[in-house]
Amino acid sequence: MDKRQAMGSWLSGPRAAAEDAGVDFGYRGQQLGLPEEGPGAIARPGRRIGAIAVDWGLSMLIAYGLFARGDQQAMGNWALGIFFLMSLLTVATVGCTPGKVLFRLRVIAENGGRLAPGWALVRSVLLCLVVPALIWDRDGRGLHDRLSRSIQIRI
Fold first, then answer.
1. What whole-number distance in Å separates Cα of residue 107 and Cα of residue 113?
2. Which of 62, 69, 72, 94 has its CA 20 to 30 Å from the CA of residue 36?
3. Separation CA 79–CA 149 (nearest Å)
């Protein structure tokens, strides 16, 4: 076997190479007891990115309209604060932000219930730091979800 095939390419990654070698990872969310497809399944990256883009755009619009007064630096700072508050308040109360509603996603606790306010706070802070959201596990959960003991599912 060619060493390049064993290691995977930069496009496919090491997971694809391991799967080609016969390693069975199961589907995303299987370890968590979630279905493979449909309602209750792990949210796919495209939907998650779409939801966060909508939430960020809404935050920018609110910051521009209410607080920034044409100052680009101020608008970015206000938008981050609005994004944080929107994420914290909506995830802690109803389990989804406006973007998540649009893309039919919800944030739940690992035990299947509503995410506690303290964990919603941890999740929102980590999400605003951006880097934890870019580090994913084999189930497609970001580090911010793992550390806050939450799961994003489809509804």
1. 9
2. 94
3. 26
